[in-house]
Predict the 3D structure of the following.
Amino acid sequence: MSPGPARGRTADPGGGRRGPVRRWHLVRAGTDAVPPSTRRFMARARQRRMRAALPWAVAVGVAALAALVAWTVLGTGLFGVREVRVEGAQLVTPVQVREAAAVPDDHPLSRVDLAAAARRIGGLAPVERVTVSRDWPDTLVVRVVERTPAAVVPQGQAFAVVDRSGVVFRSLPRQPEGLPVIRVGSPGPDDPGTRAGLEVLAALTPQLRAQLVEVTVEGLARISLTLRGDRTVVWGDATRAADKARVATALLGREADTIDVSAPEVVTFK
């Protein structure tokens, strides 16, 4: 700052005169007025401040971007479910699978409870195993493994299809070809008669299966096989099934209507 020229004198309130009033105004100094060393120091200080602030600025930017992405993925329908793709289903229809999955359209794909959806789909009787996964950006993939039929059980005019665990998963109006018949009162995975019949069936040799008409379970110790030609194999209970199957197979060529292998060491014929 530099003093300006005097503009005059002012009166003293006490009646006297005061000296001249100096008026000041700012003058910008040129760059040459700042020493080079000072300018270099100030430049380095600015650079240090910028380097110190840069990580914070980057962190804030990354956090803001992450929040935006999370909100887009989790809170909007931009990545919502547009399709439920069903693979491996034959006994159940894709519509049944989608309805069982119970995932609304446009529900954020990232928020779908895959385990819960798999449990609901697994409640369909023909489904043995199921996996549910995401296929970005908008598809839910359901891979189904259906139950394999092991036998049929006559139920009135229909035939209940059971798998190797005894689960009834289908009903047919006619007996299908290629599936053996097990006669039990109440088929199911918790029915001892069903489990015993399936255990006997699993132990049969190919020769016995080729001759088999049906397995009848009248009680846990009263199991019998009906073979072609009205022949009967008295099986007894389900224990020692492999031994009984081996003995019965060896005796298929004997002329007898009834072969009793309930005690495989002592076989009787009728």
Observations:
- The first helix runs from residue 36 to 75.
- Residues 1-8, 70-74 have pLDDT under 50 and may be disordered.
